[in-house]
Design goal:
heterodimer; A: mainly beta; 3 helices; globular; B: FAD/NAD(P)-binding domain; FAD/NAD(P)-binding domain; 2 domains; five-stranded parallel beta sheet; 9 helices; 21 strands; 28% helix
């Protein structure tokens, strides 16, 4: 079944406030990676900010504000990835390998993959973008939201937003 | 026949009712909670997703954990809060200020409370289509109860009707339970729920078809599929209907307040589309036009549980204050601010408009 890739149906089609890519120059050289937030709707929610240990997610003046990121402060720790109730935070570390990036993606499905597994990396409509290799699986908040660390081709980080165990 | 005379009767032990009970008991009132289900928590017990909002509304915490936190909060008041489970509040007699209730199917009781906080929640809407009485056609609430309370999946492949927050969240929970979601249909040209909830299910491969609806369910004795079609600007079917294979059709087409007791109590009511049904007029303390009755949560307009919990705090506090119990005006102001903040965004616009339609500055004489 083909459903159009429209913003109105939950697919990010272009950058907009609350859903922008990190600045390219900093991103390329920043060890540990930077957060990618895709939260373009004003909704009353701020756990990304309150969970951020480095102050990278800028404090909200109104709880309905879309998140703003001070990328210079982001350490790529991925606590927001685990905390965000909308699963709208992701981390990509472009310094991971030569042509390989490390993505830290939220995961709440079963089965939980293990380190070393090959998984399907999915795009914004569930299409398989490529294969990825699981480098680590963490559960930062001990609440069954896992953060899957998966190495992927660096040129695919803007397309990959989920994994599927195959 | 047993009779009960609590200071405050809370009807409904969901997020609004538990918050009201905690606040009223915290002020010193004796509280009785009447709950229809076998456990407290209302819809929270089936919410396995993390909540939105701020820390004060338990943002980032799963719904069923919030139910546990609220139960622990009222437990600290010991005997001051008593709970009647498996209880249906069946009537309110304004002249005697008498509440009637059935505990289970055998015991009929009278409750004569000083004050009432109605937090009876909402019921699901269903839409008519041929064969909608076939086994396999569910309301989203039933699907959630089966899966998340009893651990039973409703089927193997589900067609979801409605892309509000409930349709989107239940679709996600179906995927978590290993059930396939064939598609989510939405009559409007955009999703009604939070965009991030939609993005979550889309990236797991679930199609969301905007401007689409169900035409009929297929099957002789059970659901074997559904015919669906596109809708035009006037929401009329357009083009040819086509078949979706599924063994379950889940309706998530909205809720409407469970307001029967408010009618019985003679509360001044109004039909407010933005609040999804007939709702009572209220002052900022969440009091109705009946000087003994407060309200909180979905019964006064369909909204998120985060708002229901704050309304419950306000109602419980105000009901206790009206009995002479000391409450903190600072807390009251803080709750009002938090409620205003939650409703400040674009998704809160309809709520703001709806509430302004039934908000009064104060009640005459009896106030």
């Amino acid at each position: 079944m083909n459903a159009p890739r429209s913003f109105e149906s939950g697919v990010l089609t272009d950058e907009r406030p609350g859903a922008v890519k990190p600045p390219e120059d900093l991103w390329k050289k920043h060890k540990g990676g930077l957060v990618i937030v895709e939260c373009p709707q004003r909704i009353p929610c701020n756990p990304c900010n309150t969970s951020c240990p480095s102050g990278s997610i800028v404090p909200f003046s109104d709880i309905n504000d879309v998140p703003q990121v001070d990328y210079a402060k982001c350490t790529g720790c991925a606590l927001c990835v685990a905390k965000c109730p909308g699963l709208a935070c992701f981390v990509a570390d472009l310094t991971f390998g030569d042509r390989t990036a490390l993505m830290k993606l939220p995961y709440e499905m079963l089965p939980v993959p293990a380190k070393g597994d090959q998984v399907a990396c999915l795009g914004r409509t569930g299409e398989t973008v490529c294969e990825g290799s699981v480098e680590n699986v963490t559960e930062p908040l001990r609440d069954r939201t896992r953060v899957i660390h998966v190495s992927v081709p660096a040129d695919k980080v803007n397309d990959i937003r989920a994994i599927r165990v195959v | 026949m047993r009779e009960f005379k609590p200071d405050v009767l809370v009807v409904g032990g969901g997020p609004a009712g538990l918050s009201a009970a905690a606040e009223a008991a915290g002020a010193g009132a004796d509280v009785l909670i009447a709950e229809g289900d076998l456990h407290l928590g209302g819809q929270l017990v089936k919410q396995s997703h993390k909540f939105f909002g701020s820390k004060d509304e338990f943002a980032g915490t799963r719904g069923f954990e919030i139910a546990r936190i609220l139960r622990e909060e009222i437990a600290q008041y010991g005997d001051r809060v008593s709970t009647m489970l498996n209880t249906t509040v069946s009537g309110y007699y304004p002249d005697e200020k008498l509440v009637t209730a059935m505990i289970g199917e055998e015991e009929y009781v009278h409750i004569s409370p000083q004050r009432i906080v109605l937090a009876s929640g909402a019921q699901e809407r269903l839409i008519p289509f041929p064969n909608n009485d076939l086994p396999g056609v569910y309301g989203a609430g039933a699907v959630q109860t089966l899966m998340n309370v009893y651990g039973v999946v409703p089927g193997k492949r589900v067609l979801m009707v409605g892309a509000g927050n409930i349709g989107l969240i239940v679709s996600y929970q179906l995927l978590q339970a290993g059930v396939e979601v064939a598609a989510i249909l939405e009559a409007m040209p955009r999703i009604g729920g939070y965009w991030v909830h939609a993005a979550k299910v889309r990236r797991l491969g679930v199609p969301i078809l905007l401007r689409h609806s169900i035409v009929r369910a297929l099957g002789d004795s059970v659901v074997t599929g559904a015919m669906i079609c596109e809708l035009d600007e006037k929401f009329s079917p357009t083009g040819e209907a086509w078949k979706v294979d599924c063994d379950t059709i889940c309706l998530a087409v909205g809720l409407t307040p469970s307001n029967e007791l408010l009618w019985q109590a003679g509360c001044k009511m109004k039909y407010v589309p933005f609040l999804c049904g007939h709702v009572p007029f209220r002052d900022k303390n969440m009091r109705t036009s009946n000087a003994d009755i407060w309200m909180a949560g979905d019964v006064c307009g369909i909204e998120e549980a985060s708002a229901a919990m704050i309304e419950g705090r306000i109602a419980g506090m105000s009901a206790a204050a009206s009995l002479g119990f000391k409450v903190s005006s600072d807390n009251f102001e803080q709750y009002q601010t938090r409620l205003g903040n939650l409703r400040a965004g674009e998704v809160g616009e309809k709520i703001r408009l709806g509430v302004s339609d039934v908000m009064v500055d104060g009640w005459e004489a009896s106030a």
